[in-house]
Write a structure and sequence with these properties.
By secondary structure, this protein is an alpha+beta fold. Helix content is about 15%, strand content about 35%. Strands 1-3-4-5-2-7-10-9-8-6 form a ten-stranded antiparallel sheet. The radius of gyration is 18 Å and the shape is globular.
Length: about 240
Amino acid sequence: MNRIWKKEYNLRGSDFDKFNHIKPSAVLDLFQDAAGQHADELGVGFDQMIKRSYLWVLTRIKFKIISQPKSYQRVIIKTWPLEPRRLNYRREYCIESENGERLIVGSSEWVVIDSEKRRLVSAPDLYPFSDGFHTETMFEEKIAKIRDFESTETPHVVNAGFTELDVNNHVNNTKYANYVLDAINPAETDKTEIFQIDYRKEVLLGTTLKIYYQKEDNIVVAKGENENGDVMFACKLEYKK
């Protein structure tokens, strides 16, 4: 049983923006694909979990671009779960070049909920092994909660559509990054180094979101509010200085 999962991928042209910077949504998509395949291999994929009345819920994800990848580059993606901590399940990621150079590193935090009651559950027997977890973490510090801010500017408004939904029937976690980038409309000199999203509440089909953001120096914080003013997600970007 592979405690560390890895696979080669060819990056696509569509993974990059008009400045040839890799899109945050593309990084999240690669992470999601790797995590999903590894979960299936470990027996904790979507189909296996739903049979146990469980669902994975991603609560927070963060990545750092160490070296900008290139269009059509062949890369190696690695991922592994850390040992669970009560209700917290953490998974790490690493995207490398063919010669082993680290390009992007990331970390995510998950919880498990009862698929019917929609309540948090503790599942100490979730993985098919209880020891021997790979222990390397991509960030030494704990991933901190993104701070809130006063939303005074005119928001960028989006409506959740069919193509953004996943098998859980809510907006897929990778799509929020596009909402934020569309709101910010970054310049060519705005090169993302660190990107984080906190997922607060699920966004369903037809939900109207108001995307607000604030920029100070090289840091941007953003959030998406529904029509009732509930914060559905928060995001933080740090551009290279």
